[in-house]
């Protein structure tokens, strides 16, 4: 498959934005490792969502090679893909805000600002459906019934996350999401190949 020069150009911008996303997550994790007591210390809820996002961004970046199959790029498609990438970056920034003074810890920040975090997570999930549609009908067929189920599960998780104030519920959601996401992508990688 010969690469489209337009996509090669677009891929540079995607790489920059997704690189910033991964940098934000890894830098945030490094700061927690370096100073574990600062910013309220470790939080299982926060750590699970950071790992979920890291797995998701890395695998999203991997699957964006399928955009090379798009035969006709428009400025609208370009803007959509850039907006989708930017939403991943926003999710990463929401996990590692610059100032936590009014919240005390990452966990308290996530619990108090849960509507913003889970709202962005829902947006990322919906934009993923559009991104998959851009890649064509064959991509939908390859993903099979597991893909819409995955999107539905993530939207249910975001709805519960927005509605619940319970720390136990949020820890359960974060663990379920992380385990499910890792399992989903492992299953996808073992069943789908690069043509």
Task: Describe it.
The mean pLDDT is 87. The termini are close together. It is built from eight helices and no strands. The protein has 195 residues and is an all-alpha fold. Helix content is 76%, strand content 0%.
Instruction: Give the structural class.
Output: mainly alpha
Work out the helix count. Answer: 8
Low-confidence stretches: none
Q: Estimate percent helicity.
A: over 70%
How many individual β-strands? 0
Question: Which term fits the overall shape?
Answer: globular
Topology pattern, helix = H, strand = E: HHHHHHHH
The mean pLDDT is: 87
Largest beta sheet, briefly?
Answer: none
- The end-to-end span amounts to 9 Å
How much of the polypeptide forms β-strand, as a percent range? under 5%
Rounded to the nearest angstrom, the radius of gyration is 17 Å
